[in-house]
């Protein structure tokens, strides 16, 4: 009788200890994360399309298929506005879409590079070629409307692998969700024509969150 109460007490004690330790660890962890945030204040990496040229965007209709011919170039700026965090970027992939049809993909638009704190880098994406596309009626009527206006809505998605450097500590590479650039690009038949009439407006694509301290 006495023995069993004793062991129940002991069990209660060790259970209590376990909870106390878990709580303590949880608090230390939370406070460390908070201090980490205060020191580094990690901000998103920002993507902006600063310039775009579209010199070809046409559909040819044959008996067997519809082919899209395209020639599109983008200048994309990547802003690291962090005061104390550096980033490594690699495998930057650009996918061009019309409606929800993707018509061109470029893997590795740039070699891997390191981007220090408070800096902006520029990468270029060039899509040139042709692709058989199957457009729905709605997409086709939009295409015809945009052909008359000579301004096309093209959606460019950017994917990448990113690693952050906090002081001397580096995280592992992560693949954040794609960045989405919804572009409205005037067609130009010559480089000079790009600076008359409808001009490309700088387009904000949003950003990606930096990986936190995971190896
Ligand atoms: C992009 O940048 C390059 C080099 O600075 C420049 O020659 C070009 O006109 C810019 N625009 C496009 C759409 O390529
Ligand atoms: C191509 O031809 C088909 C059949 O005549 C037509 O339905 C479709 O609208 C045409 N597409 C274009 C891009 O003109
Ligand atoms: C599309 O049609 C063109 C012209 O008929 C032909 O040369 C090309 O091979 C076709 N492409 C496909 C994927 O069927
Ligand atoms: C992209 O470049 C990296 C090295 O910078 C290379 O390891 C990788 O295989 C390349 N990927 C593609 C799809 O070309």
TrEMBL record:
Membrane-spanning segments: 12-40
GO biological process: defense response to other organism
PANTHER family: NDR1_HIN1-LIKE PROTEIN 10, OS05G0367900 PROTEIN
Stated name of the protein: NDR1/HIN1-like protein 3
Localisation per UniProt entry: Membrane
InterPro entries from the UniProt entry: NDR1-like (IPR044839)
Keyword Transmembrane appears in the UniProt entry: yes
An annotated GO cellular component: plasmodesma
Organism of provenance: Prunus avium (Cherry)
Keywords per UniProt: Membrane, Transmembrane, Transmembrane helix
């Amino acid at each position: 009788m006495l023995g069993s109460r004793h062991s129940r007490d002991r069990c209660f004690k060790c259970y209590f200890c376990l909870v106390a330790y878990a709580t303590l660890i949880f608090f230390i962890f939370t406070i460390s994360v908070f201090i980490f945030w205060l020191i580094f204040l990690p901000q998103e990496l920002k993507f902006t399309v600063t310039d775009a040229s579209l010199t070809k965007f046409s559909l040819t209709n044959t008996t067997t298929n519809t082919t899209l011919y395209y020639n599109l170039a983008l200048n994309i700026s990547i802003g690291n506005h962090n005061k104390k965090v550096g980033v490594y970027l690699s495998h930057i992939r650009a996918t061009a879409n019309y409606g929800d049809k993707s018509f061109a993909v470029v893997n590795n638009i740039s070699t891997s590079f390191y981007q220090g704190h408070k800096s902006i880098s520029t990468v270029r994406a060039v899509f040139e070629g042709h692709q058989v596309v199957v457009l729905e009626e709605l997409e086709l009527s939009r295409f015809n409307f945009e052909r008359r206006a000579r301004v096309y809505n093209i959606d460019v998605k950017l994917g990448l692998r990113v690693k952050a450097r906090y002081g001397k500590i580096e995280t592992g590479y992560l693949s954040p969700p794609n960045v989405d650039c919804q572009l409205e690009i005037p067609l130009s038949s010559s480089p000079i024509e790009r600076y008359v009439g409808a001009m490309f407006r700088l387009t904000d694509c949003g950003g990606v969150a930096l990986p936190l301290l995971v190896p």
